[in-house]
Specification:
InterPro entries: Phage_rep_org__N (IPR010056). Pfam families: Phage_rep_org_N. This is Phage replisome organiser N-terminal domain-containing protein. The chain is mainly alpha-helical and 170 residues long. The protein folds into two domains: 101 residues, Winged helix-like DNA-binding domain superfamily/Winged helix DNA-binding domain (Arc Repressor Mutant, subunit A); 59 residues, no CATH class. Helices cover 62% and strands 9% of the residues. It contains seven helices and five strands. The strands form two sheets. The protein has a three-stranded antiparallel β-sheet, with no helix packed on it. The longest helix has 35 residues. It is elongated. The termini are far apart.
Length: 170
Amino acid sequence: MSKAYYWLKLKKDFFDDPKILKIRSVAGGDTYTCIYLKLLLKSLDNDGVIFFDGIEPTIEAEIALKIREQEINVKAAMAIFESLGLLQKGEGEDVRLPEAASLSGKECDSAKRVREFRARQKEVKALHCNGAVTSGNENVTLELEKELETETETEEANASTCVRGREKTS
């Protein structure tokens, strides 16, 4: 069975959202904001729903256990979230976070493998396109060396001609 990887996408202005500003303005608001983010993360693999398993007597107590927060903070936070429309109590004791679906993403192992394969294929194709481009520099270097050799040979020939010419005149 392949693994699925989930992520939470936060908007750039997440902390400027009026609902989050309202949460942060109350006493303990920073803790409540953290609780909200933890709830979003817990609900990622269930399309924004946190199911009540019955481990604790209430959903609030169970969530507090699952996210390692104090039950009193979770109760207060959930009341605020519900009043702002960030949380809805569903069937039974289940809790739904309406914004979770729009803030989450998912990728399976196979999707990751295919994405990486396509990236490698793109690199190979790019390398094939650049194959003929780099050979131009090699020719320039060889031509310069040939010109230098020709100039050196010409200078040596001229120098030896001058020396022979002096010998004949003396």
